C-alpha cells in the first residue's frame, strides 16, 4: 500500500481498552486517519483498568485442560474456591460450557498453548515499541512473577511446568526458603513455588492506558465519547458506525470492545461464542511495600500485585454474564485470602468487578470478519488481554495496512466457530 493511500484511509476503532488504544496507536503511526469510540473515558472502569497488571509472556498453558475440567464441580461447590457461578446465568452459559469441554482434549489444549505462545513470545518487544517516546518511568517493573502453593490439591502443577519447558519458557523452581528470601513479608504457608523471571508488572494500568491514549491524540487521533449502537455496511461495503447521536462512515472498522464485543458481532451475522469470566479486585492502600513483585497463591486462585494504589488483590473466575450484580461473597473471599497471606492488613478499598472476554477454546479472535472484508476484530484475550495489547495492536494494524505479519494467524480467525 502506498503512503498516499494510507493517508487517505480512515479507520473507526470501537472500544478504548488496551486492545482498542493499542490498535489505534499502531494505525496512526502508520499514517491512517483514526477515530476511537468509547462510551467511557479511557481506562475508567474497563478490564484494562482493573486487571492484575501482569505482563505474562510465559502464560501459554490455557485453562481448557482436562485436569482442570475434572476439578470444576468441586470448585463450584466450595464458597471459598477460585471459581463461582451465578445460577441464574446457567442456562445461557451451557452452550459455551459444552464448547469448552470439547476443547479440553490434550490435542486441543496443546493447539491453544502453541498459538498463545506464538503471540505471547512477541508481547514484550511489541510493548517496548509501543512505549517508544512515552515517559514510562516508575510505571512498569521487571522483577518477574512468583506462583506458590501448598502440598494440597495440586496435581496439575507438573503438567504446566512440563509444557512450559517444552515451549522453551524460562522458569525457576523455588524452595520455601527461596520464596522467603524474595518476598520476606508473606506468611510462610507455602511448600513450593516457581519464578517466571521474564514477567513484568504495571504499577498503574490506568496511567499506562492514559499515556498511550494521550500519544494517540497528540499524533492526530480523534476520540468520540459515545456508545456505539450498530455497525452496518453501505452498498460499497464501507462500514457505517452509528452511535447514540451520530453516524460515521469509514474505510475500515475494528471491533475491540472486550467482553461486550458480541453485541456488535451478532449484528453482522456472526455467531461467535464470546462470554465473560468475571473477576474482582480490592486495594489495601499504603501496603505496596509488603511485596516487590506480583505473587499468585495457586491453591486459592488469587494474586496480589504491588501497585501505586496499594496492594491490588485480584481473582475469581465467576460465570455470570455482563448484567448480574457484584457478589459480596467473592469480595469477602479476596479480602480474607489477602489477610491469610498478610495478617497485618486491615481496611480494604475500591471494590471492583471486571469482565474477562473469553472464548471456549481460550484463543482470542484477531482478524477480519467472516462476512465483511472491511471489518476487523480484536477481542477474547481472556486472562491475558493486558499482556497481549501491544502485539494484537501491531498485528491488526499490519493486517489493515495489507502488510505481512510472518505469523500463522489462521488459529485466531473467527471462522473457526462457523
Ligand atoms: C480480574 C482480572 C484480572 C486480570 N489480570 C490480568 C493480568 O494480570 N494480565 C493480563 O494480561 N490480563 C489480565 N486480565 C485480562 C485483561 O484485563 C483483559 O483481557 C483486557 O483488559 C481486555 O481488554 P480489551 O481492550 O479487549 O477490553 P476492555 O478493557 O473491556 O475494553 C473494552 C472497552 O470497550 C468499551 N465498549 C464496550 N462496548 C462499547 C460500545 N458499544 N460502544 C462504545 N464503547 C464500548 C468499554 O467501555 C471498554 O472501555 C484480567 C482481567 C480481569 C477481569
Annotation field: number of helices: 13
Query: What is the CA-CA span between the terminal residues?
Result: 31 Å
Strand content: 15-25%
Low-pLDDT stretches: 1-6
Radius of gyration: 21 Å
Q: Largest beta sheet, briefly?
A: 9 strands, mixed
The whole-number mean of residue pLDDT values reads: 94
Bound molecules: flavin-adenine dinucleotide
Counting DSSP E segments of at least 2 residues, the number of strands comes to 21
Give the overall silhouette: globular
| Helical amount | 25-40%
Which class best fits the helix and strand makeup?
Answer: alpha/beta
If you had to describe this structure to a student in words, what would you say it looks like?
- It contains 13 helices and 21 strands.
- It is an alpha/beta fold and 418 residues long.
- The strands form 4 sheets. Strands 4, 6, 7, 8, 15, 16, 17, 18 and 19 form a 9-stranded mixed sheet that branches. Strands 10-2-1-14-21-20 form a 6-stranded mixed sheet.
- Helix 2 (18-29) runs parallel beside helix 10 (205-218) and helix 7 crosses helix 13.
- The longest helix has 15 residues, at 106-120.
- The protein is globular and about 65 Å long.
- The structure holds flavin-adenine dinucleotide.
